[in-house]
């Protein structure tokens, strides 16, 4: 079982299904237009369930600033987004813990999080599930650059996961550390539950 949090148009869900055809994947994408594309791309696959909701540290609703076609939409403030061109949209929030309880979800083997700086909030809302005994992986987008407000800092995420029994395993997709137009650098960090 995998949770693809911040699924965008289904890139990670498709990759998981290619590698593990029998896996169940819950894909979460709050922006309506992006969700429609996600659903078209992956909802026909067996064991894939698409949810038009944002996972967070609270339940309710919040306004998100979006740019059409952007992979950088976020519930966290973004210093580089031109707010004059952004469209405001109301999205539904739910914690991972509440989603799991309401939907009778079993053990989750992988939680992938790519929420453009909202990642620690997602983890906070998943604390009960992440504390459960068993092997789990958390794969989350991070940065080491404090001036990058678009992504979550690595060390607060490490500090959150270590007491829950997670061990840092490595950094992946390091090519994102190349210079880009917004002077932000990021990669993905893998954590494995060791106890």
Structure, explained:
This protein is α/β, with parallel strands linked by helices. It has a single domain, classed as Vaccinia Virus protein VP39 (Rossmann fold, 3-Layer(aba) Sandwich), CATH 3.40.50.150. Helix content is 23%, strand content 30%. It is built from 6 helices and 11 strands. The strands form 2 sheets. Strands 1, 2, 3, 7, 8, 9, 10 and 11 form an 8-stranded mixed sheet that branches. Strands 4-6-5 form a 3-stranded mixed sheet. The longest helix has 11 residues, at 32-42. It is globular and about 45 Å long. It starts with a strand and ends with a strand.
Q: Which structural class do the helices and strands define?
A: alpha/beta
Percentage of β-strand residues: 25-35%
Helix percentage range? 10-25%
CATH architecture: 3-Layer(aba) Sandwich
Provide the CATH top-level class: Alpha Beta
| Count of helix runs | 6
- The tally of strands reads 11
Question: Sheet bearing the most strands, described?
Answer: 8 strands, mixed
The end-to-end distance, rounded to whole angstroms, is: 19 Å
Radius of gyration: 16 Å
The overall pLDDT average reads 88
Unreliable stretches covering 5 or more consecutive residues: none
Spatial shape = globular
**Which fold does the CATH topology refer to?**
Rossmann fold
What is the total domain count?
Answer: 1
The CATH homologous superfamily name equals Vaccinia Virus protein VP39
| SSE sequence, one letter per element | EHEHEEEEHEHHEEHEE
């Amino acid at each position: 079982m995998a949770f693809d949090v911040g699924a965008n148009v289904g890139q990670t869900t498709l990759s998981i299904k290619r590698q593990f055809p029998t896996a169940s994947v819950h894909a979460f994408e709050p922006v309506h237009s992006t969700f429609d594309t996600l659903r078209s791309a992956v909802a026909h696959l067996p064991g894939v369930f698409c949810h038009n909701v944002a996972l967070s540290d609270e339940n309710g609703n919040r306004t998100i600033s979006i740019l059409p076609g952007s992979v950088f939409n976020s519930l966290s403030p973004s210093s580089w987004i031109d707010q004059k061109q952004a469209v405001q949209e109301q999205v539904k929030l739910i914690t991972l813990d509440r989603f799991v309880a309401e939907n009778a979800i079993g053990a989750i083997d992988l939680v992938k999080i790519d929420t453009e700086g909202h990642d620690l909030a997602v983890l906070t809302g998943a604390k009960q599930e992440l504390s459960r005994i068993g092997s789990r992986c958390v794969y989350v987008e991070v940065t080491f650059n404090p001036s990058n407000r678009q992504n979550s800092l690595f060390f607060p995420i490490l500090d959150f996961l270590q007491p829950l029994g997670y061990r840092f395993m490595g950094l992946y997709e390091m090519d994102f550390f190349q210079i880009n137009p917004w002077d932000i650098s990021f990669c993905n960090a893998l954590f494995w539950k060791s106890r």
